[in-house]
Amino acid sequence: MDLTTDPRYDALRRDFPPILSTAQVAEILQLDIRTVMKAVQLGHLKASRMPGARKWRFLLEDVIAMVEQNFTTVGAGEDDTEDDDAPAAPPAAAPPATRGRKTKQAPPRSTPAPRGRGAGTRTK
Length: 124
Known about the structure:
It is a single chain. By secondary structure, the chain is mainly alpha-helical. The chain has a domain at 3-70: Multidrug-efflux Transporter Regulator, Chain: A, Domain 2, CATH 1.10.1660. The chain has helices at residues 10-15, 22-29, 33-41, 60-70; strands at residues 19-20, 58-59. A two-stranded antiparallel ribbon has the order 1-2. Helix 2 packs across helix 3 (33-41).
């Protein structure tokens, strides 16, 4: 089916103008503005701007085409191979996060000597 006549996107066409701002695209896609601009930089989303202008503009039909190409609907004709009656496997224990550095473990501490007035110095 041609995207220009696809009834699934009629609400978008009714609620948004044919030329969109970055904020409007972010609203449609439910993304942050920086994520939209990253999609433009990576070539996933078409955008243009006038020479010398700072603001990017998007065609609504390009946004709809990108949605159609990149987003899938869960359960729409997909074969679900998981058995719903089978018990769920316990999650694997994750190793402690080291943030890329190897950490040294401190040696075990010995019990400290008692401190204070006359502590440990009693004699008969």
